[in-house]
Amino acid sequence: MVSTMSNPASDIFDAWWGWPPPVLDPAGPYADSVVVLAWALIGMGVVVTGIVVAALYVAIKGPERWRARLGGEKAVWIGGIAFPGVVLTGLLVWGLTLTASLTEPVPEDAMRVRVTGYMWWFGVEYLDEDGDVVMRDANELHVPVGRPVVVELFSEDVIHSFWVPNLSGKEDMIPGRTNELVIQADSPGRYGGVCAEYCGGPHALMGFVAVAHEPADWNAWLAGRRTARPVAADQDVPGEVPAILPAVEQTGGTNLAGRQLFMDSGCAACHRVEGTEANGLVGPDLSHVGSRLTLGAGILPNNRGTMIGWIGNSQAIKPGNRMPSYDMLSAEELEAIAIWLEQQR
Amino acid sequence: MNTLQYRPRLAAAALLCLALTACKEPPGARYVPDPEDTKRGLAAIERTGCAACHEIPGIDWPRGQIGPSLEGFNNAGLIAAALPNTPENLALFVRNAPAAKPGSTMPAMPLTEEESRDVAAYLYGLDDE
Ligand SMILES: [Cu+2]
């Protein structure tokens, strides 16, 4: 599924530097109005700059008669008060109407997820209809196309901001408060995201990736996540998408040497792996890390080599992040852990 | 016109360049990669994240430390202190190190054969920059 999608070197750089610029390349209705507004503002900016430059030219080089008119009282009333008054009021009313759709109550059948900001990564939890967590993940959000998704935004430490430019505007993640943001992707693809509020240290390396699937791929993705409660048969029709994910069961992988090393090296104190004794909450949940697209919060591709590199020396890759470098582990030990983590799918 | 009078000096400079390059290597012995290949090689390196473990000239970030730096790689005698440094060996090594050198601590990487040849071209082309 992923191989057919664009595969940028890094999702976080794609969010900032991708072409066409993701801010101007909406992939869903909640980004659409933001982009329309942006173009209108850019257009008006160009028009007004043009008028000012022309006036300046007249004031400096124009014929005497024009200069007198430009300096007259009438020009001030029209150009200085009436024009900006009318234009700005018009733009304000239009802009507010346009963006009002962004704060409309969301449809009942919307899927719900919770994304929590940490220094410097994103925790992701998929919720059921009662708001209970059915699956935990990190730095990556999978959604079906054409369906609104309510993202509940929290922070565990400082203020962060959640931004997937192709899908919506930014929304702050504030400690002690829940903000809600609705996103929707209308075409399948992989959309890079970032933290858009400076949060200290390696903030610039705090990225995210949203993946939108066609209904059939979405069901396959769900199945790949080792779901315990099978998707009800009547829901498993292409085109029909269950809004709520079934609860997930996890078995823990077969590379027992890697598993033992993971538990013995202290990883379990910071990381949670579903179905094992690892239940740390300081770092990203690793229950599905093997099937994740990125490592280090949207900054590295995920493969055996980068997994070993991250565990062995994450501080060289993302200086200041809150995971210690495990350079005391041998290459063989690092590889064993990496293999076990790859099995957490 | 007035560029004419510089011609003799230009010629001398060109000769000097030739002489200098000739000193460095016997002609023909050095493998000079195609710039198109090296360009694709760099893209493949970025996409697979080799720099998570290696410092690689031309890549500002990341600069991984747990593998050796690949600076001046093209002048190394052996790959991973074991294999003769040829483009074929290098391509095999970057794609499937444990197969190229049993016991290697570098894992196999998700590169196609084609991509691994491009990556090797990039590493060989390094000192031309
Ligand atoms: Cu931040």
Automatic annotation (TrEMBL), chain B:
Pfam families: Cytochrom_C (PF00034)
Record InterPro entries: Cyt_c-like_dom (IPR009056), Cyt_c-like_dom_sf (IPR036909)
Signal peptide extent: 1-24
Residues in Cytochrome c domain copies: 36-127
Keyword Transmembrane helix: no
Keywords attached to this entry: Heme, Iron, Metal-binding, Signal
GO terms assigned for molecular function: electron transfer activity; heme binding; metal ion binding
SUPFAM superfamilies (UniProt xref): Cytochrome c (SSF46626)
Entry keyword Metal-binding: yes
This protein's name: C-type cytochrome
